[in-house]
Amino acid sequence: MKGIVLRSTGSRYEVLSPEGTYSCTIRGKFRLADEDATNPIVIGDQVVFQLNDDQTGIIEERSPRANKLSRRAAGRRQGKEHIIVANVDKAWIVQSIRNPRINPGFIDRVLVMAEVLHVPVGIVFNKADLMDEAAEEVVMYFAELYQSIGYDVVFTSTKVDGGTSDLSPYLAQGIHVFIGPSGVGKSSLLNLLIPNTVLKTGAISESTQKGKHTTTYAELIQVPEGGFVGDTPGLREFGLYEVDPDELSHYFMEYRPYMGMCRFPNCTHDHEPDCHIKALVESGDLSIERFESYQNMLAAARLGKLDVGR
Fold this sequence. Notes:
There is one protein chain. The protein is of the alpha/beta class and 310 residues long. It folds into three domains: 2-62, CATH 2.40.50.140; 68-231, Rossmann fold (3-Layer(aba) Sandwich), CATH 3.40.50; 245-302, Probable gtpase engc, domain 3 (Ribonucleotide Reductase Protein R1, domain 1, Orthogonal Bundle). It has helices at residues 28-33, 104-116, 133-149, 186-193, 276-282, 288-302; strands at residues 2-9, 12-17, 20-26, 46-51, 57-62, 68-72, 81-86, 90-96, 121-126, 152-155, 175-179, 218-222, 228-231. The strands form two sheets. The chain has a five-stranded mixed beta barrel with strand order 1-2-3-5-4. A two-stranded antiparallel sheet has the order 6-7. Strand 8, helix 2 (104-116) and strand 9 form a beta-alpha-beta unit. Helix 2 (104-116) packs across helix 6 (288-302). The protein is globular, with a radius of gyration of 20 Å. The N and C termini lie far apart (42 Å). The model is unreliable at 200-215 (pLDDT under 50).
C-alpha cells in the first residue's frame, strides 16, 4: 500500500492512504541507511507500507524526495541533519508583530537554508492586530525589504474577521509548512485556517518574552481543498546544515546579479578589497541588515559552528 506520512511521534508514523489512515512502524534498514540524519522518515514522505493483521503497518520503502526542509540537530545529536518535512511546495516563516517581536536573523537563516535545499519560501507576519505606530516602522521596513528581494509576504491575525484572507489562497494545494519560534501563533493560525482543528496554543514567558513550546511533534493537517499544512514544534534556533562558507553569498538572492563583479572572482565579501557587494551596501543599494546577517553566518560557518545564534 502507498501513502503519505502525516505524523511522526517517536517510533510510530501515521500514514494516509486512499484506503484510510494507519499507524505504522519502520524497518530497521531505514535507521542504518540514514545514520547522518536524526529521523529517517518524516512528515511529507511518500512511502510504501505492508498492512498487518491488526490493521497497523510496517513501512517498507520511501520514495525519492523532491526536496526537504532541514536544520542542524541540537543537543546530543548535534552535527546531524534534522529533517523537518519532505516534499515541500512552500515553507512559510511565521513571525509575530509583538509577543515575541520579529527576529530578522532567524528569518535570514531560514531563507538561506530554504535556498540551499530548493524549497520555495514566504514570510507571514502574524498578530497584525497588535501593530501600532512604534512597531509599524520596523515591521513594514522588513516586509518591504523581503518583498523587494522576491519573497511573498503576507500579514495575518487570528483576532479579526478575514485575518487570514491573504494567506488562505496559497494553501489550497500542495504541502506547506509553518516554521517559526514558539509563541508566534502557528497553531492559532492553523486552528482558524482549517475547520475542526483544535491544536494546543500557549502563552508567552513573562521572563524571556519567548514562546513556550506547545506543539511536541511534527504533523501534516489536511485542508478542505485537499492540500496539507505542517505544524511543527517551535524553533528558537535555526542552525544551518552543511553550508560552505565560500558559497554562502549565493544563497542571498539579491546578491546573485552582482556575482563576478568584485575584484577577486572568489570574493567572500568580507575582508577583500574592491568588493562590489560591500560597495552596494555602503551606498544603500543593498540592505545593511541583510549584510550583517550574512557576515554573522559567514563567521560562524568558518568556525564550523553552523548554529549562528538566536
